[in-house]
Design brief:
alpha/beta, 3-stranded antiparallel sheet
Length: 330
Amino acid sequence: MSGDPNFPSDLDIHPLASASSDSDVRFDSVAQEGAIKTYGIAGRIWEASHAMLAYLDPSSPFEFDPSPGPTTVLARDEGGATTAIELGSGTGFVAARVAEWLRPERDLLIATDLPDVCALLEMNLHACPAVRVRPLAWGSGEHARRIADELGLGLSTNPHLRPDVPPARGLTHVLCSDLIYFPALLAPLLRSLIHLTSPPFVSRTAPAPAIVILSYKIRSLSKETPFWSAFGLWFEFVPVLARRRRSAKRNSSSPPSGEAKGEPWSRFSPGGESSDETFVLVAERRLESLDWIIPEADTLLLSGVGAQGSQFPKTDDQFEQLLLMGMDVS
C-alpha cells in the first residue's frame, strides 16, 4: 500500500459511539472526531475492540474456553506476571482498559503502532503506569528487536554483559483488536506475529508459549481470507466459547434453572447474536514452525512458502472449517 495506510484515498469514517468509550473524554465521539482528522483510521475505535475487552474483563458474567487467565487478567507464567504487546493500538482504548486490570509492580503492556501514531498513544496512556508506548510498524524486524532489547531479551542486554539491565521478561501475550482489513497489510501483520512468537521473545524451553488473542470483525471475507489461510500454517487457533456463570446466590430451595444446571457452550458473541460476525480467537505458534525459514517477500509469506519447511505455496483451512461449522458447541 502506497502512502500512509491510515489515510487511504477513500477514507470516510466516523466515531464509534458506545457507553464504555463515551464515558471517557479520551475516547468519546468528540475525541475520536479530532483524532480521525489527525491520525485517520488509527484515530477511531473499532468494533472488535469491545469484543476483546469483553473477553479479558475479570468481572465478566461469562466463563470462557479458553480462559483468558487463571487469577488475574492475562496471567500466564509461573509467577503470575503478564508481559503483553498490543499491535495496532490506535487510540489506546483497549490498552487503557486492560491497564486497569494489571498490576503495575509486576505486569507490563506495551502499546504499539506506527511511529506517527505514538503521540496519540502517549497522550491517552501517559497516566497508565503498567503501559509503555513504543513504535512497531507491522513487519518491521528492527522495531521488534528494539522492543526485545528493552525487555532484556536481546544479546545487547544480556545480564552477563550488561549487569545494569533489569531481568529479562519473556512475552506472554500478543493482543490484536480489529487488525485484519486491508489486503496490503495482511502479510506485514502476519510477519510481526511470527516475529513476536519467535526467539528472543519466547524461549523454546518456556513452560507455556506466548498466547495470541485476536478479536476480528468480518468486513470483506474474500479479501481477509488470505490472512487466515496463511496464519493457520504458522499458528494453531481456536474460537473462544462462552456460557453464563452459574449463580452463586441462587436460593437452595428454588428449583434448578437452566443457568444452575449449566448452559451449553457456544461461540462467544459479545453482541448476544449468533449471527454477529465478530469473533475472538486464541492462537499459539506451532512448535515445529520455529525451525521454518520465513520468506522475505510478503507475497511468498502470504502464499504459504516456507511453512511446513517447504518452498511451495500452500494454505490452511482452519478458519474456513470453523465458519462452516458455525463455531457452536452444544
